[in-house]
Amino acid sequence: xxxxNFYTVTTQSQEPGxxxxxxxxxxxxxxxxxxxxxxPVVPGVCMMQTITEVLESAVKQxxxxxxxxxxxxxxxxxxxxQPLVDVTVSYKEEDGGWKVNATLKREDKTFMKxxxxxx
Length: 119
Prior knowledge:
Thiol Ester Dehydrase, Chain A; globular; alpha+beta
């Protein structure tokens, strides 16, 4: 949904139970005209969708968020100043769903932390 337009994956590595990608944000994407003009900020819903898409790519199936136990937005992402973001998604199959821990960060700056369950 967002991959290939809002962001592109520049690097990816995967091992059992974890996938790490670096994404490059498209600062010219129309969403930033409304969020916010002259001060672009990646919307939280886009961060969450990115986690969902990275998980789907790793587990090779569509998933739906069932429960967000923790969703912390710690710093804003300005796609002009911070076009590259590292996304790490750790996942474990549990009770017919996926238990997930994820972070969006770059170097020592963490933008978002997430813990939850996907079906």
